[in-house]
Structures are given as structure tokens and as C-alpha cells.
User: Which sequence fits this backbone?
């Protein structure tokens, strides 16, 4: 009976020691809560903001994140190692450049997204229950009515820092622009099919040549007319 009691006490002590060690261990941060990414897809046309509806987007994990002492540390996933950088130090231009680079890797290697979402009639979509990290959000299917609208891929961090606080429900605003239209045919200046320099000297010189040609033609016509008159008189 004493042996059983002793074994029980020993096991209890071992459990307590293990728990204390886990709690006191440095560098072990509690798991960050799950977050979400909401898209607000609006495009301005003729001064009016209209929703870009019924497009499908892929949400692809690029890096994991851990929250420590109120800050966020990132670790790039192996699939995107070639675009790895100090994510926390990126400015707006750097973020756009990394977004394009990550998008190229995604298109080339075809890794599976963690979620796909479709914008509703208001141009909104939401991916929920996302672990802390950095995600590439890119359009993968375009609705017929949006074929003439381009959109840039975006990188979104979960959580994001808003007013000095970590926000786990992040709203992203993709940038849209119209597809460039065809360039109108050039009329070719004074001579159709021939591109002229736009310098004033060349234009004036050409006008002078045309005036001389016109004068010569008129003079020649008069000589022919005079010759005909002389012949008739004879």
C-alpha cells in the first residue's frame, strides 16, 4: 500500500514540475487567435464608385506569424522562400513589389490556396478562420462584366497593426484600373500614311514645298493654255 501511495505522489510531483517548466520556458508565446480577411472591391468610373462583383479570389499563405510582446514576427513558408524579406520593414512600394513577385510564384507553381472567396453584389468577400500570417490575395476568375477591369494582387497581414493595436479582422482594398483601350490611328499629318515630325521648322518647310509645287503646276497650266490659244490663232 505504501508503494502505491509513493508512486502516486511521485507521478503528481512530476506533472507539477513539467507544468512549471512549460510556463517558465522562455520564447514560448501563446497561440495567436484566428483572424479574417475581408475584401472591399470598388472601382471608380466617371467619378462614381461601383462594386466589382462576382469575381473569385484565392487566399494563399505566404508566411506564418507569431505574436510576441505586442509585436509580430514572420517566417516565410518554403514555397515562397525566393520572395522572402524583412516583411515588417516594407513600405507601400515594397509591399506592391513583393505582392507581384509572390503572385508570379503562385502562378508558376500553382500552390493550393487556403481559401477561395467570391465577391457579392456589393463587391465584398470574406475569408475566415485564418491563422496568423501573411496572405497573398489574387483574382483567379473574372466575371464577364469585369473583363475590362484590372486588379493588382495584394499581400495582407493577419493581424494588422491599426492605430497601434493588433487587428485580427483585416479589411483589404484591392486597386482596380480600366484595361487600356486601343490607340487611335494616326492621321499622318499633311500626307496620309506618313508620320511627320512635330517640329515647326519641318512643317513650315513642307508647306513651302507644297506652295512651290502648286505655283509650278499653275504656271505650267497657263503655258499650256497660252500655247493652245496661239495654235488656234494661227
Assistant:
Amino acid at each position: 500500500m505504501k508503494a502505491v501511495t509513493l508512486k502516486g505522489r511521485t507521478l503528481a510531483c512530476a506533472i507539477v514540475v513539467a507544468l512549471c517548466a512549460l510556463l517558465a520556458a522562455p520564447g514560448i508565446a501563446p497561440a495567436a487567435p484566428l483572424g479574417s480577411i475581408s475584401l472591399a472591391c470598388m472601382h471608380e468610373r466617371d467619378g462614381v464608385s461601383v462594386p466589382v462583383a462576382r469575381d473569385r479570389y484565392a487566399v494563399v499563405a505566404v508566411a506564418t506569424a507569431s505574436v510576441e510582446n505586442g509585436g509580430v514576427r514572420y517566417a516565410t513558408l518554403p514555397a515562397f522562400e525566393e520572395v522572402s524579406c524583412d516583411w515588417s520593414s516594407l513600405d507601400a512600394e515594397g509591399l506592391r513589389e513583393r505582392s507581384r513577385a509572390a503572385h508570379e510564384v503562385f502562378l508558376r507553381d500553382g500552390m493550393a490556396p487556403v481559401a477561395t472567396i467570391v465577391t457579392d453584389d456589393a463587391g465584398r468577400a470574406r475569408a475566415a478562420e485564418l491563422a496568423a500570417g501573411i496572405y497573398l490575395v489574387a483574382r483567379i476568375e473574372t466575371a464577364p462584366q469585369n473583363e475590362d477591369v484590372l486588379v493588382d494582387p495584394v499581400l495582407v497581414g493577419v493581424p494588422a497593426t491599426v492605430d497601434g493595436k493588433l487587428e485580427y479582422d483585416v479589411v483589404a482594398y484591392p486597386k482596380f484600373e480600366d484595361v487600356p483601350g486601343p490607340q487611335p490611328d494616326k492621321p499622318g499629318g499633311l500626307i496620309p500614311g506618313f508620320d511627320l515630325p512635330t517640329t515647326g521648322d519641318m512643317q513650315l518647310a513642307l508647306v513651302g514645298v507644297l506652295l512651290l509645287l502648286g505655283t509650278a503646276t499653275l504656271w505650267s497650266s497657263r503655258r499650256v493654255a497660252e500655247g493652245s490659244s496661239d495654235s488656234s490663232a494661227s
